[in-house]
Every structure is written in structure tokens, then in C-alpha cells.
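Attaching the record inline, Q. Sequence:
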Amino acid sequence: MNAHAGARDGSARPWRRLRAGLRGWGGVGAMALLCALAVTVALLLPLSQPAGDTDPAGHRVTHAGQARAESCEDPQDRSLSPSGGGKSPVVDAIKAREDRRLVVGVDTNSYRWGYLDPNNPSGELEGFDIDLVHRIAEDILGDRDAVRFKAIPTSRRIEAVQKGEVDMVVRTMTITCARLDEVAFSAPYFVTGQQVLAPKASQITGFDKSLANRKVCSAESSTAYDNLEAGRKEGVLPASTDIRTTVPNQLDCLVKLQLGEVDAVVTDGALAASQAAQDPAVELKGGLFTDEYYGVAMKRGSDDLVRRVNRILEDYVEDGGWAASYAKWLHPTMDTDGRKSASATPPEANYA
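Structure, as predicted:
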């Protein structure tokens, strides 16, 4: 983990399970059995490897992209190093388009991240993620406005990338081991954690036993739902916690909370803080209980684009662009009570 993983308050804790090893094996018989198992695995391993992609001639093709999710730890540290020249087929194809625009999947409903401000006469999207998209477009195409934004629901982020509907998704998307098998990610550009959002008058105290017999909402295909499911399985949450309510877009959970259809919402703390700023009747309950690193999602195999985006991210942090965007969009909701949020510092980039 990088230095920022443990920087949050005392309630923040990486959510990792310590898996028990083999127990009760001893003596020569155990050693012999282990050796036999090792030989068997060695013989069968070549047969169990995935077939992979094939070229038109039927030859197997391997990609030099990011490591897959098997035995994956610290997925935020598995991106490719920034580009330093060389061939750029994916980037060149983007530049060669007739309209010369970057196609990016974003959120249009997340306050201060990617949203339409009704008071903005230009009608343009605004927010922290939107600023990053403009910076990427400026670097690749020389024009910060050379972007075609596509509204992508939370549940379709991966599908949109895989089907080539977008060049990338910049939408508060957490880098996870499982997702690394489906898309490629940049280095992390933001770090936060999961948190509970509930009415101020509620007796809910956080991600704990107070969620017994409560309906909790999360977005489909989100890390929030994964954590709710694992929380019940591991006994962190009571078995009576109802996690069946899921929605395509995370903001829909806030609407259900306001309508009284659910008792609480689990989502990223950074998003929850923005939602609490929109509705003074709700508040964050308890501390962060995971570490969530946001990354730019791109198609697997588009290594040159991944490397280019990583170089852009490094420059964005070094020249103060990241800090300026945070101060404009997120400081008002995240740095509260005179305290600076740990999220106010960009995560350190470590490459595979």
C-alpha cells in the first residue's frame, strides 16, 4: 500500500481478510502429500491456462498489459509506467478521427464530480472528474474542449469500455483486482473510502450492528454492494440487514433515502459528502471502512493510452492542476470543521 492508505482517521481500516492456512498437517506423511500436490499442479498448470486471444492466423496472442487479478494485492499499484515515447497506435487513432475528439464516459449527476449546474448559463458539465477529462483532452489533442461526453450509469462503466463506446471512463471508478481482469486502469488519481449516509435523526451509527433490520441502498456493480455482501457474510453486519435495493446510478440511492424507501446508503465517502451538502437532512454516519482508489478506466490492450494518461496525471499533480481542481470542487464538502481531509492529498503513484 502507498503512504496514503492509512492516512485517514482512526476509523478508517483496509478491509482485508486474513485467510487461515492449512492446519493440523505434520510429519513425513504431510510432506510427501505436499510434494505430490506440487508435482500434480506443475503438470496440470499448462493445461489450465486460459486460451487467450488469437490472431487471424490462429496464433495465440498475449498482451503486455496490467497484471491480472489472480493473487492480486494493492490493485492501485498495478498500472503501467508513464510513456516516454515509442509507438502510440491507440492515441494516434484518436488523433486521426475526423472530428478529433476524445470520447469519455462520465457521470452527469454527481454534485461536484460530474454534474450539470442549472445556474451555469453555458450548460456545460462541471466537477472534479470533468476537469481531469479536459486536461487529458488538452494534452492528447491540444484542445481542452475536444471531448464528447457520454453519460454512463454506474452499472455500465465496464461494458462501455469493453464495447468501445468510449475511449475511457472518468467516473469515480474504484480500481479493484476483479476489474483489472475486465479493463485497464491508470494510476490512482484520488483516494477515499466507503461510508454510510443516513438521515440525521436516524439511530444508525455506521457500518455496524446498527444496520440490523434496515434497508440499505447501493449502486449495481459497485464496490459498495460488494462490501455490503461481504459484511453480512463475515458478520460485520447483521444477517437481517436488507441489501437487496440496488440502482443503476448511485445518486438514485439518495432519492430513495429522501423518499423513505431505504434507511441508509453505502457509497464512497467523497460522493456521500457531496450528497450531504445537497440535502441538510442527511449526514455521514461513522468513519471510512475501506480504501477506494479512483482510476481512469480504458480498454485492455490499449497500453499506449494508459501510459499517456499516467504521464498526464503526473504532470497534473506536479503543476498544481490537481490541487486547484480539488480546492474548487471538493474542499467545500470534504474539508470540514477546520480539518483537511486525507483525500486532499493526491495518492502516490506506484507502477507494476
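Residues 102 and 147 are 5 Å apart (CA to CA). The longest helix spans residues 27-48.

More tomorrow.
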